[in-house]
Design brief:
Length: 370
């Protein structure tokens, strides 16, 4: 093979997805495993969404509506924004890709944090842009350092709020102070994949940041149907932004990027308030239960505004991860992120939570003995 692999592609490390259950069971010859590693919704999908998706199967011989008209109208009304301010993606992942495609040329600069969602940096690498990566400070985005790195070449700043993997949320004042400092030639992308799980008393409105009349830099909000709406498997997310920014993203997307099943599922999930509320209630209860449980095992849970949280297990996280895998419990080791003794786990069903706690207790004993 003589093909030339460009240097920027050679340098990319593939995204490490949570280990699929099927693969784990094949490898270890076990069954009944659980996965708490990808921050999915363990309670979903919404029954109404399932019904709508089933019905849509009869029409999959047709291309889907490339404008997502009905979903667009319903979501715009739900959020109180104009339909022209929304762009849908094959997961919010795809909106990240569109932003980089549309606004970053070769050599264009992008600022991200570490650790945070890995895909921001990857899309920039693919595009041949330059990543500036700022370490979190005390588990939060270091906004002062990010602002200090801004240059005339900066095109995008990605901030996941709440952050993955720490689960921390910026306060409204910190965020507003940061945005007020920035020049207006760049776009700040606030990735709000987990915004639905934020405690009610900590929530604040970010839609008002899209108002162009305040004269600040442009802001794009990213949200998803993958988490609170339980539709990770059909891949649909969206961005909310000023209409001229949305018009640019439409230019770089494929005409039918959202499949029919996803459009119908998201539309139905959006109006299934019972399922949405049940997810939030059960997630909050599960987080309290797990927090107490891991404390009883001598571990230190880190408070989180999401459906997952970090746990300091006071032992090598990757060794513990391996032991847990063999017990059929898939979690994440945070060692590769620089947190050597931390694991990340998302809230599961009641049964899964108990399974996790039992396996963690055993694994801690085994790691301690080893
Ligand atoms: C912070 C963050 N942003 C975006 C995503 C991507 O979500 P989606 O399924 O909408 O592509 C994830 C997925 O885990 C995430 O953690």
């Amino acid at each position: 093979m003589k093909i030339e692999i460009p240097e920027n592609i050679r340098a990319i490390t593939p995204y490490p997805p949570g280990k699929p259950i099927e693969e784990l069971e094949r490898e270890y010859g076990i069954s009944g495993s659980i996965k708490l590693a990808s921050n999915e919704n363990p309670f979903g999908p919404s029954p109404a969404a399932v019904e709508a998706m089933r019905e849509s199967l009869d029409n999959v011989h047709r291309y889907p509506d490339g404008s997502c008209h009905y979903l667009n109208q319903a979501l715009a009304e739900h959020l109180g924004v104009a339909a022209e301010q929304l762009v849908f993606g094959n997961g919010s992942n795809e909106i990240i890709e569109f932003l980089v495609k549309a606004f970053v040329k070769e050599g264009g600069e992008v600022i991200t944090s570490h650790p945070s969602f890995l895909m921001y940096q990857k899309f920039v690498q693919i595009r041949g842009g330059r990543n500036h990566v700022v370490e979190l400070r005390e588990m939060h985005h270091d906004l002062d350092e990010i602002a200090a790195l801004v240059s005339p070449a900066t095109r995008l700043i990605f901030i996941d709020n709440p952050n993955n993997p720490t689960g921390t949320l910026l306060t409204r004042d910190r965020l507003n102070g940061f945005l007020a400092k920035l020049p207006d030639h760049l776009i700040v992308v606030l990735d709000e994949a987990y915004i639905d799980f934020v405690d009610r008393d900590q929530r604040y409105d970010t839609l008002s940041l899209l108002d162009e009349r305040h004269g600040r830099c442009a802001v794009v909000l990213l949200r998803t149907f993958s988490k609170a709406y339980g539709l990770a498997g059909v891949r649909i997310g969206f961005g909310i932004m000023a209409a001229p920014v949305a018009a640019c993203l439409h230019k770089v997307r494929q005409p039918f990027n959202i499949n029919l099943i996803a459009q119908q599922g998201a539309l139905a999930a959006l109006s299934d308030h019972d399922f949405y509320e049940l997810t939030l209630r059960k997630t909050a209860a599960g987080k309290r239960y797990l927090t107490e449980g891991v404390r009883r095992l001598g571990c230190a849970p880190f408070p989180s505004q999401t459906n997952f949280f970090l746990i300091d297990v006071h032992t090598d996280a990757t060794a513990l991860y391996e032991v847990m895998l063999k017990k059929g419990v898939i979690i994440r080791s945070m060692k590769a992120y620089g947190f050597d003794t931390f694991i990340r786990v998302n809230v599961g069903t009641d049964v899964e939570n108990d399974r996790f706690l039992a396996a963690l207790g055993e694994a801690l004993r085994e790691c301690g003995d080893g």
